[in-house]
UniProtKB/TrEMBL annotation:
Transmembrane segments: none annotated. Pfam families: EAL. InterPro entries: Cyclic-di-GMP_PDE-like, EAL_dom, EAL_sf. PANTHER family: CYCLIC DI-GMP PHOSPHODIESTERASE PDEF (PTHR33121), OXYGEN SENSOR PROTEIN DOSP (PTHR33121:SF71). GO terms for molecular function: cyclic-guanylate-specific phosphodiesterase activity. Residues 1-143 form the EAL domain. It comes from the Bacteria. This is EAL domain-containing protein.
Length: 149
């Protein structure tokens, strides 16, 4: 695909779900290392929803963790979810990874994530899926910066 499109590898970020990693951890590790050697960026999606241990995650050549929306829903109101999300943000910072909060649906969730220094957010509270031709107008209206996707 990279050859066919002439896309520089470092411009491609592939997401793999935490549960897919755990289907065959050794094979996943081998393939992720090969992709990383090409320069492809890697993201673990739905982090926290599967069974990946922290010791396994630290061996992976990933650039980003996407926190599963089950932890983000009402993060501003649920003490246990808040503790998990806050510690994941700190962990990512210490490991040099970006952290994305998935499923942000309310302004109060977004505010909580900003206060707790979450790198990136996504969800219907930010914007609904849209064709690219609508994106530019949406960006002008909302003044959304590059940190909200």
């Amino acid at each position: 695909m990279l050859i066919q499109t002439s896309l520089p590898a470092e411009m491609l970020c592939l997401e793999i779900t935490e549960s897919a990693l755990m289907d065959d951890p050794e094979l996943a590790h081998t393939h992720l290392l090969a992709l990383a050697r090409l320069g492809v960026k890697l993201s673990i999606d739905d982090y926290g929803a599967g069974n990946a241990s922290l010791s396994y995650v630290r061996t992976l050549p990933v650039h980003e963790l996407k926190i599963d929306r089950s932890f983000i829903t009402q993060v501003d109101q649920q003490r246990k979810s808040a503790a998990i999300v806050r510690s994941t943000i700190v962990l990512c910072r210490e490991l040099g990874l970006s952290v994305v909060a998935e499923g942000v649906e309310t302004a109060s969730e977004l505010d909580w994530l900003k206060i707790n220094h979450c790198d990136l957010v996504q969800g219907f509270g930010i914007g609904r899926p849209m064709p690219v031709h609508e994106l530019y107008g949406w960006l002008e209206i909302t003044h959304a910066g590059p940190q909200e996707r």
